[in-house]
Amino acid sequence: VCFIPDGLDCSISFVSHVLGKVCVHGRQKEILSVLVPRLTDLTKSDCIWQRICWRLVECVPDRWMEAVVLGFVQRAPRADVLSRLLGNLVVKNKKAQFVVTQKMLLLQYGHTTAVLQNLLGYLALDSLRRALLIKVLKELLETWGSSSAVKHSPPEQQQYISKAILICLSHLKEPEIESCRQELLTSMMEGVKCHLDSNLPQIRHLGMIVAEGISSKINTDGPVLKFQYEEDDEARELKSLLVQTPPFCVVPSPPDDENDKADAALPGVLESNKKSHPAAPVKPEEESDAELDSDDDLIPYDMSEDKELKTKAPVYIRDCIEVLTGSEDVDKWEATVKALESLVRKNPAATREVSVELAKIVLHLEEKTCIEGFVELRQRAQVAILTTDPIPVAKYLTSQFYSLNYSLRQRVDILDILVLAAQELSYPKSHGKTKHSDAQKPCIQLLPASDSSKDWRRIVDERIKSKTRRFATGQSQVERASGPNEFNSVAGHFFFPLIQHFDRPLMTFDLLGEDHFVLGRLVHALAILMYLAVNTVAVTAMGKALLEFVWALRFHTDSYVRQGLLSCISSVLLSVPAERLLEDVTEELLETQSWLGDVVEKDPDGDCKRLALQNLLLMENLKKKLKTIPS
Amino acid sequence: MALPPPDPQFVLRGTSAAIHTLHFSCGSQEPAVPVLFSGSENGFIHVWNLKTHRVDTALDGHGRKSVYCVETMGGKDQLLSQGRDQRICLWDLAEGRTAVMDSVCTENVGFCRCSLLKVAQGRWLMAMAAKALEEVQVLELPSKTSVCTLKPEVGAKLGMPMCLKLWQPNCGSQPLLLAGYEDGSVVLWNLSMGKALSQLVCHQEPVMSLDFDSEKAKGISGSSEKVLSIWSLNEQQSLQVYKTHKLVNAGISDITIRPDKKILATAGWDHRIRIFGWKNLKPLAVLDYHTATVHAVSFSDHKIPSERLLAAGSKDHRISIWSIYTQT
């Protein structure tokens, strides 16, 4: 497309129409891939071309404006290029303004960071447009700070909005920040609150990073907000958005800084050398003062092994109880805490005598001195106590879960211990020490659970083996030695007390209200216990109770809780034998199936949808399996 | 690069009880056998033959109550032993006899080891803790007559006497007594007048053991805390603290200075024996062999310097014999 610039009055509206029509029919890529680079070059220094370009986009009819603007914003390589191409379009044209400030930022969230940078940079470059930038920031903050948005919008959208906020902040200048400081502060406080309330760690991190960013901008002098979180790639990327590098700056300071640092280091070294010299002459003088005596003939031996004596840990369980409850001797206390788990495992009979008391003491054990890995030591000791004497200790722990005046950490600890102990009990004993993985989110695998095969099976197998002629042996697999399933007798004791009182609020503990974090953990724990209860006698009753529990909570607003509920359903489908499911649990299954369909369609959280889909597939598989088995 | 500490020359086993006291008798000429006496918690006194490393005789005279002090009175034929049965026994061991010649009833239930001093041929002074709580009684042996009773003044609150040492400044002059008490102080007593000449608070905890070098008028005491205290006696017979030494682990059961006054050994609750130079208390070695508290250390009285030995008896039923710093 070639234009004659000098002196001629030309009308570009036809070209605009063409451009608009092409864009709206979805051909943005083709036409703009040619047009935008050409225009970029042409408008680089030529004012007339710039004005022509602006006219071009301004004349696009409103109904096609969105497509064109979108295409331009996406294709422009940098913010200043976009500025040259679009000019003050957003100020002049209502539709363009809507697209740029509302649609692309709040309603869509699929654009890349580069596009966001271009868009917001474009808004920042001209004084007329800066007012829009501030308006945009305020709206973004309003969305970021609204608790319903945090709960119901997908994490990807929340990340997009956080990025946009950080980029806006990076563009703001001092006077602008001054003028809206109070509003920034208010929205930051609200936003931080609802972000930290969430159960998903990603949301919490986003909240923390954005709050830190805002705080650093509004409190340039004085203490800034600082959170503690893991510095992963996402966090680093977000933080880098806060700083705008101007496109043409050279990097001058580092070499100077390095020189300065080296200079500063040298005098330090010299000083320390000087200090050591005066010290050295003093010592020989002292020694020469002492008489020369025959003692110098006696050469000392090597005494480097002479260290402080370590206190021994107690060898009896009752001694441990004494030390942990009363002793002021911190060395002994430390040694006891470290030795507790192995002592409990080595002395099961002695532990059974005092199991509930010991469990009580360890549950309330606080860190007296700084021991490395204290939390893990405590947890392992508790698991050991629980597996040694499951029924009374489980009774105690589940009753304490619903008692007054426990901290959230202690209640969650109880859940973790029950799950880990269940895992240990349900695994074949001859496996040796099974790895206790921190099972927070159970992964749904279609693994066969531990078998509790009986002796007769082994004898029959051997008889068959000896009687059949083998022509070729396939790959021999090492068969796991099996033993009785210890979880069988206690599964009910772990499970039913936990599920009993969830709807009864206490003074300090309200599962259905504020403490939805614990509810989420409880639901996940129940899912794991259900999964581990495969092949136990109580499994059908457990499955029925669990499905009713799920039904009562299915509309909970917290997505972590819903994910837990869906894992519960998976566990039920995997653990309860198919025949029992169809016979005893039919109504609950049908209700659940209809709910699952709902979740797949309407739930805002991607993970929930995926889990619901998996559950539906599991149900389909079950049906097929039952149809193929001849009844 | 310092050498690693030496291993014991040999270890005596067979007491089957914790050893509380040791005493060498190796001064006699050949063909007499060097001998070590040990007192154990089961009430036996074992006479060890240091050539064969076996028990020659076992003496049972304290009714199976723990023996916590053994001393020879001029050679190995006369032995004095003190036990928890509140008796001090005098033994006649000549020509293979194992008879208790005489005994003194102390009526004291404490653990304070008695102290012997030869004042003339055939006459000894013995200081021991008496029946009353804070008193020390001095007897003359073998007549068993009481020489004096040393009572601290009223309100002194010294507690029980924990360790005693009788000594004479030069031959023939008046003997003096150093006593370490439960409150951590060391008191110098004049026996003829029965009065305390000087008192020094050396420790915060009870004085567990002390030893004194009469030539240099310097002494050392150990306690249940981490500090060794060295004190000296000036011309006015008053005690002053000379130096303190901090140990790695708390608790000293016994201290003894070698007869040539070159080195000293301490027996520790941390199972270790520590050797120091006596002149400046320079740490020389840490001997780590035992697996329980070391209750007693003793140096031998060999005439030939290179044969000198150090013995340590411990709660782990072993006696370790060391040959250390014998060249000087």
Description of the structure:
- Chain B: InterPro entries: WD40/YVTN_repeat-like_dom_sf, WD40_repeat_dom_sf, WD40_rpt.
- The complex is a heterodimer of chains A (631) and B (328).
- With 631 residues, chain A is mainly α.
- Chain A has 31 helices and no strands.
- Chain B is 0% helix and 52% strand.
- Chain B is built from no helices and 28 strands.
- In chain B, the strands form seven sheets. Chain B has a four-stranded antiparallel β-sheet with strand order 1-28-27-26, with no helix packed on it. Chain B has a four-stranded antiparallel β-sheet with strand order 2-3-4-5, with no helix packed on it. A four-stranded antiparallel β-sheet of chain B has the order 6-7-8-9, with no helix packed on it.
- The two termini of chain B are 21 Å apart.
Mean pLDDT metric of chain B: 90
Overall geometry of chain B:
globular
The major beta sheet of chain A can be summarized as: none
CATH architecture of the domain at 423-428 and 485-630 in chain A: Alpha Horseshoe
Characterize the quaternary organization of these chains.
heterodimer
Low-confidence regions of chain B: none
Protein chain pair with the most extensive contact, residues per chain: A-B, 16 and 25 residues
User: How many β-strands of chain A, per DSSP?
Assistant: 0
CATH architecture of the domain at 111-246 in chain B: 7 Propeller
Give the helix level of chain A as a range of percent.
55-70%
Q: Can you identify the CATH class of the domain at 423-428 and 485-630 in chain A?
A: Mainly Alpha
What gyration radius of chain A follows from the Cα positions, in whole Å? 35 Å
Parts with pLDDT < 50 across at least 5 consecutive residues of chain A = 248-292, 431-455
- CATH topology annotation of the domain at 423-428 and 485-630 in chain A: Leucine-rich Repeat Variant
CATH class of the domain at 111-246 in chain B, anyone? Mainly Beta
The 3D shape of chain A can be described as: globular
Task: Tell me the fraction of residues in β-strands of chain A, as a range.
Answer: under 5%
Q: Give me the CATH fold name of the domain at 111-246 in chain B.
A: Methylamine Dehydrogenase, Chain H
Protein name (chain B): GNB1L protein
Organism (chain B): Alca torda (Razorbill)
Keywords (chain B): Repeat, WD repeat
Pfam families (chain B): WD40
